[in-house]
Amino acid sequence: MNEAIRAAKAILAKVRFDDATTTARGRRAHARVVATIEAAEQLAGIETQLRIANLVALSGLGGDAALKARAEAEELIWPAQVDHKAA
Question: Which residues of 9-29 are buried (b: 16+ CB within 10 A; e: fewer)?
Answer without folding.
Answer: eebbeebeeeeeeeebeebbe
